[in-house]
Specification:
Layout: E1 3-6, H1 9-19, E2 24-32, E3 40-48, E4 53-56, H2 67-73, E5 79-82, H3 86-96, E6 103-105, H4 106-109, H5 121-129, H6 149-160, H7 162-172, H8 175-188, H9 198-206, H10 213-233, H11 243-251, H12 257-260, H13 268-287, H14 304-324, H15 334-345, H16 357-371, E7 376-380, E8 383-387
Parallel strand pairs: 1-4, 2-5, 5-6
Antiparallel strand pairs: 2-3, 3-4, 7-8
Helix pairs in contact: 1-2, 5-7, 8-16, 9-10, 10-11, 10-13, 14-15, 14-16, 15-16
Length: 392
């Protein structure tokens, strides 16, 4: 198959104009971010619905020449097919400042076909298309020019096989599954996912962690400092302060620069350069307890009948985890379960949903049916099954 390598503005504009007529295009990117805060886009691969392969070189092209590409990716009429799109969306958004529209992610969609939540691209291609992909260029330097024929073929394969993979998966999905997936895809197109503010950096570190109010405040102030420093220097945020170091400092707050040397993995040059500022920020936390974040409110308790329903719901969640090869913890957490049970038991039932996308379809809808006496669970050959019949 011929690969169309594009490194001039005129050709890119012509190709992008043609691609607006496609119903869908398969897209992938190659980028580097080992030594930087912001990922560096090195290549954009596109396979169109006419079976043509285009490799676009953003390093060779000036920034303004890429505008037709950004316009294509933002076209609501053209479905953009990715596999595991999150990182691709991040690099494309941070490079262009424009959020892609109309997404289809084959990794998420493959969950409905029993491949688990994080099925690798090579695994799906081998299973569904009976083709083994080469893995020789997985650690290649995509910034180096010129790219070798082996690099070009490797990059092209990611979209050459993504296109038929998309069509194969699409043909096996029900309308209900398609609708659920649209919610999952739309959630990935939220720009807030790819623009971390210093203020939000600490909150991200605190997710799923239990700290005192004072410790939370220290985590937040150090995470905010780290984010500002990393962005300003385009350096990986963990080069100076890792997440674990921030947690350790929050649990054993140092009072002097000398105390910082007690942290085993904190490098002396970093302490000498930034230690005074860190101590100053920690001192400010101690001086202003009124700014400490409050402890999360305890979730409301369930009644005894609701606790029994929660046990049934957990059994169903475990069955879904088994059937679809998903970790239980990736489906819903305890606060979500509590909220779902209480919501489903309200009279009249609460209309708002707790889960979205595939989680809503596979988990929330059945649990609501159970709580509202519209369905029951039965055991058949060791497997839980949902009987969707109104009970009398």
């Amino acid at each position: 198959m011929k690969i169309n390598y594009i490194d001039d503005a005129h050709t890119l504009a012509e190709i992008c104009e043609e691609l607006h007529a496609c119903k869908w295009i398969a897209v992938d990117t190659e980028f580097l971010r080992q030594n930087t805060y912001y990922p560096e886009l090195c290549l954009v691969q596109i396979q169109d619905c006419q079976n043509r392969t285009h490799l676009i070189d953003p390093i060779a092209l000036p920034a303004e020449a890429l505008q037709p590409l950004w316009a294509l990716l933002a076209d609501h009429q053209v479905t953009k097919v990715f596999h595991s799109a999150r990182q691709d969306l991040e690099v494309l958004y941070q490079t262009s400042g424009i959020m892609l529209q109309n997404l289809f992610d084959t990794q998420i969609a493959a969950l409905f076909l029993g491949y688990g939540e994080n099925a690798g691209f090579a695994r799906l291609v081998e299973s569904m298309l009976h083709t083994q992909l080469e893995k020789t260029q997985t650690r290649t330097n995509w910034h180096h020019r010129p790219l070798t024929p082996e690099q070009l073929q490797y990059a092209a394969d990611d979209v050459i096989y993504l296109a038929p993979l998309y069509e194969t998966i699409q043909s096996q999905l029900t309308d209900e599954q398609q609708a659920a997936l649209q919610e999952d895809f739309q959630s990935l197109l939220n720009p807030d996912l790819y623009t971390i503010s210093p203020e939000a950096a600490g909150q991200k570190l605190l997710e799923g962690r239990h700290f005192s109010s004072k410790q939370m405040a220290i985590v937040q102030t150090l995470a905010a400092w780290r984010e500002v420093h990393a962005q300003a220097n385009n350096a990986p945020r963990k080069w100076i302060l890792t997440d674990d170091l921030i947690y350790e400092i929050a649990k054993r707050p140092p009072k002097t620069i000398h105390d910082l040397y007690k942290f085993q993995n904190l490098k002396a040059p970093h302490i000498q350069q930034f230690g005074e500022e860190w101590i100053q920020r920690i001192d400010e936390v101690f001086a202003h307890p009124e700014t400490w974040p409050p402890k999360p409110a305890k979730p409301p308790k369930l009644s005894k009948n609701q606790e029994l329903l929660a046990l049934l719901a957990q059994a169903w969640v475990h069955q879904i985890a088994h059937d679809y090869d998903i970790q239980v913890t990736r489906i819903l957490n305890k606060p979500q379960l509590t909220e779902l049970i209480k919501s489903a038991c309200e009279q009249p039932p609460h209309s708002s949903t707790v889960l979205t996308g595939w989680r809503h379809l596979l988990v929330e809808k059945p649990i609501r049916s159970l709580c509202q006496n519209h369905a029951c669970l039965s055991l058949n050959n060791g497997q839980l099954q949902l009987q969707n019949e109104k009970l009398t």
